[in-house]
């Protein structure tokens, strides 16, 4: 076994051990619809038309860039097409995974709560909680699957977003703290010298070399 392959095997073992020991502690805080709306600049009904992954400019983390064709807006304003940046993805022989990150597939019909990364790039607010797939019930009506709005008819989510009132005082402060914790988790992605394991407060991130 060459040194590089030995180190790759060691990396895999480290990842497996990390996954076993950190699963319970690497979950995101749950939020509610008013909090998620407060974290978002818009909520869009869209179709996924492109999915691609790349290293960031610093070479410290892999992100996936998802292009959405916007069909409707349930809250706020958004361009007819937007690209959101999601933690994780695969580039060459490296795969990065972040627990709680939203997952997109080409051609999917989705509802996404849209916020901004610290550098202004669009992201999904609340991570997986802010993304739902749009399906149809037996009567052919659109219903949401997954995410915080899972199980809710699309029309009902629209009504809730339209009727959510601003929150003030201690409740607002608490919700801002919860939103800030979610944001910090995504910023803490890191790449070690050999691409082994990067860890944040809420996620286990793996970089595997095959």
Could you name the key traits of this structure?
210 residues, alpha+beta, seven-stranded antiparallel β-sheet, 27% helix, 33% strand, globular
Overall description:
This protein is of the alpha+beta class and about 210 residues long. It is built from 4 helices and 11 strands. It has helices at about 5-20, 35-40, 155-165, 170-185, and strands spanning about 40-55, 60-75, 80-85, 90, 95, 110-115, 120-125, 130-135, 140-145, 195-200, 205. Strands 1, 2, 3, 6, 7, 8 and 9 form a 7-stranded antiparallel β-sheet that branches. A two-stranded antiparallel sheet has the order 4-5. A hairpin with a 2-residue loop joins strand 4 and strand 5 (about 95). The longest helix has 20 residues, at about 5-20. The protein is globular. It starts with a helix and ends with a strand.
Short synopsis of the structure:
With 210 residues, the protein is of the alpha+beta class. The protein is built from 4 helices and 11 strands.
Helix and strand content put the structural class at: alpha+beta
Globally, the shape reads: globular
Helical percent range? 25-40%
Largest sheet: 7 strands, antiparallel
- SSE pattern: HHEEEEEEEEEHHEE
Secondary structure: elements and pairs:
Layout: H1 3-22, H2 33-39, E1 42-55, E2 62-76, E3 81-87, E4 89-91, E5 94-96, E6 109-116, E7 122-124, E8 131-136, E9 142-145, H3 154-163, H4 169-187, E10 197-199, E11 204-206
Antiparallel strand pairs: 1-2, 1-6, 2-3, 4-5, 6-7, 6-8, 8-9, 10-11
